[in-house]
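Async update (no meeting this week)

Hi team, since we skipped the sync, here's where things stand on the single-chain job. The sequence we agreed to prioritize is pasted below, unchanged from the tracker. I ran it this morning and attached the output directly underneath so nobody has to dig for it. Comments welcome in thread, and please keep replies under the output.
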Amino acid sequence: MYNLLVTAMEGAWDKGFYEYDKSRFLEYTNETIASALKELSDSHIENLKSYPCLFAYEGENSDVRIGYLTSIKERGRNLLIEFEFEQDIEPIPFAQVLPIATLLDIRGWEMNRTHWAVKDEDLFQRLREREILEADKETKVTKQERPTTEKTSNPKVTKVQGFIGKVLGLEQADGYEVFYRGHSNKKKYKLEPSLFRKDEEGNYLYKDNEHILYRELLVSNSTDFQSDVYTLDSLVRMQHYSLPTRLLDITSNPLIALYFACKSSIDEDGEVIVFSMKRKDIKYFDSDVASCIANLARLPQSEKESIIFAEEDFNEQPPIRRLLHFIREEKPFFEPIIIPDDLRKIICVKGKQSNDRISSQSGAFLLFGLDAVFDEEGTTEIKVSRITVANKKAILKELDLLNINESTVFPYIENSAKYVADKFKFNKSMQPTAKRGG
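Output:
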């Protein structure tokens, strides 16, 4: 195992410390490791500190250094690292490393992006095999363990009655509103929108083409979007049609969340995540902040990456001026001033009840800003608690008695037809045994 740390900031590795945006942590990292590290516990931090590090600059013309992390601290949306180099190992020209990039799991274009990856490869062994590092060169010996998902002490339920008791037992302060989300596999799924999902190797599946996905669906199904006033309206409709977006579905009905926690991965424990936030922080479909974030979907990825948040003339940058143009298409009187931090927020937004599915699922959304990462343990604005769900088949039967099933959660005639057909399908084992005459 080793850490690959890449930055575009010239001279960054001369300071002994550096800050990464959390959104750049675990990019280009295989999904098993990334899932285990989604909650950065004390033991995970100690693991990361035990792995050797390859410190590199963007591009392929600079030297790389080898060392170790000495400290990792969370600072809001950033991770502050402190480090030291192995003094007995000289800087290595990246040109020497490039021929074995594949063996080190350094992927195409990866060296062109600031990020922190965790690689499942033996760095020293690979370098020694190719004589980039002398075979007899002594290196720091540490006990390296692959990160694993840690057990939690979350309450566990096996019946609907027990679940309702847990939900009602959660204390909520006045002025707060509560939402829920169900995950069918508590080990696998993270609190991230479908747009940010990665493949097993840690590569983004859709994010780089967000603006193309948005436009292609509008082009091929334009009549379906004619009634939409705001870009957010269109994103909600696209989410409804299963297009990857920067929206994450949540619901005000805990039984709907319980249904989603049970409807698939029957043999795996699911979970219901409970979100609590101040009512005054919840936005609506016509929110200016929601418009700023939603219209990021229309910017090409290259323009999004070129935004400099520390820029004094933030609103004069070409990508921000283009974003303002998109916003003023739907809000002509919008003042041409965007607050930089608004673009990186995660907000709760209530969209229009534009279709039966949103209405039946009591739907709302978390809208993710630029490179936003939701802390799995919650944030200062959105508190999070979790309930583990087991015995899924029995719970689904109980939910059916409460009229929570595929027909009501997905209220379309084809789903209703499928539900009715399955419910009343002939089952030989359920037929009464004929008695023989005496």
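Quick observations from my side:
DSSP finds 15 helices and 15 strands in the chain.
The chain has two domains: 2-129, 156-418.
Reply here if anything looks off.
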